[in-house]
Amino acid sequence: DAARRWYLAAAEGEPSGIRRGELWLAAAGQAERAGDPAEADRLRVRAVTREPAAAAHLVLDPAIRARMRRPALDAARALLAAGRAPDAEPFATAAMESGAAQGDRVKDAHVLRAEIRAVLGDRAGAEADYAAFLARWPADPRTAEIVYDRARLALRFQDGAAARSRLQNFLARFPGDRRASAALYLIADSYQDDRGLDPGHADRAIEVFDRVAREHPGSTFADRAYMRAAHLSFALGRVAEAERRYAAYRGSQSAREARYWRARALERRGDGAAARGTLSGLAAGDDYYALLSRDRLRGRPGAVVLDPGTGGPGPASPYRGAGAEVLADPAGRTAAALLAFGEREYAGAELERAASRLGGDRARLEAWAIALAGWGFPGVTLQIGVRLGGERHPLAYPVGFATAVDLEARAHGLDPWYVLALIRQESLYDADVVSPADARGLMQILPATGREIADSLGWGEFDERDLFDPAVNLHFGARYLEDQLARFDGFWPAVLAAYNGGPHVVALWWDFPERTQDPELWVERIPYRETRDYVKKIAAQRARYRSLHAPSAASR
Residue 100's pLDDT is what? Predict the structure, then answer.
């Protein structure tokens, strides 16, 4: 019983993720061994319901599923959430056909099976399930949701004409629905996707983007719709129209983006003086648009986006020999002793506590920050750097694990500054961090991805806990980046987008004409805001690393 309580306490200290589910299952095992099967099953139900990635496999065992009393619909939900759509489909079918499933549960089963079939690539099956729902329950409160989801199903299978027709039908039937702005935006986006099929689609896309901005000014899509219309005008060569649109932008979210692209339009129109004036105003700072502006002013337009990232000499640790200041502190000596015994986690905790007590003595804080990076705790160095001067302080960009980063970058043909920027963005140099999606370690690798990489490398037995080892995590992350570089022809914006959003969706964006027409426009066209911002942040952080640490690098 003590072991069960320990596992439960440990689970309470975990953020949501596979690890928490594993601890609940371990507690269930202890309860089973202690002769309390009811408690064991209660804990298994908790794990399956709240952390299906860790526990959904249990529902595949008929005996355990019967003990947990999980109906087929719940089993299907858990398996789909765990990424096991092929296993989920039979349970969804059973729920639809079961006489025990009544009311909302049988409706839920229709919708769930449609979702499962869409994941499996079975468009006809998903269409049939949505159609059956609409035919059987035409007045159901979820009708609008189903009509909208059926339209998005066509988009998923790149059937733009069907998607636009269905979205227009959705807007006609449910004009006040909360998804109306999203539906309009998707219509415009689909027209732009299909403009190669019909030259008139580009004008229709701009027209509908303008409708989103005009009719739904407070929506999450309004700002992007405005910029998409301006960017498409620029891509079509309508430079005067694009310049007018950029100049008329009055929001805050995309203000620097609009100013940069107005400069591009002015430059294209032959007004070099006005373009340089705007670019000079943007060039101060370290963000993405500052980098783009400086490159244009220096006569190397697009260098940020088109740089192949071979990187030159890799990072060398600037922290060798540091540490006397830390060793003079009792906490530092305690941490050194813990490190000598291999207790890295406890040593790090001791050093973090000690650093938090340093007060406002800047010289001492800097000495500690440098020493801690040299001791292998660059995450604490970063924290101190931000404390000393925010994101622009040099210590906020530590060169952590320099030798390993340099070796992995050389072995896999990578730019080491991109690797450092990725580590900083993904984990803030915390080798033990776990994301809500269960990505782990320095480069935030998912266990499933780690397993795939291990198999491709011919590793023997892969343990998910290996991803907390900085050397393993760096090796796997470097291999993944190498694979994406090969897949996307060395085009780093696509590689970074794949790292954040997944290579399968980036493969769909790869054929956007902007990539070959104007790669900077391709970045602006990335559909997911999180991924678009991620690419820009990594480019900016990479430039900051190079300016601070690259041997004889020119300041960017």
Answer: 54
